[in-house]
Amino acid sequence: KTGMFTFDPGFLATSACESKITFIDGDEGQLYYRGYPIEQLAKESDYLETCYLLIYGELPTRAQREEFEHTVMKHTMVHDQLTRFFNGFRRDAHPMAMMVGVTGALSAFYQDSLDINNAEHRKVAIYRLISKIPTIAAMCYRYTQGLPFNYPKNDLGYTANFLHMMFATPCEPYEPNPVLVRALDRIFTLHADHEQNASTSTVRLAGSSGANPFACIAAGIACLWGPSHGGANEAVLKMLDEIGSVDNVPAFMEGVKAKTHKLMGFGHRVYKNMDPRAAIMRETCYEVLKELGLENDPKLKLAMALEKIALEDSYFIERKLYPNVDFYSGIVLTALGIPVSMFTVIFALARTVGWISHWNEMISDPGMKIGRPRQLYTGSPRRDYVPSGDR
Ligand code: SDX
Question: Keyword annotations for this protein (predicted)?
Answer without folding.
Answer: Acyltransferase, Membrane, Transferase, Transmembrane, Transmembrane helix, Tricarboxylic acid cycle
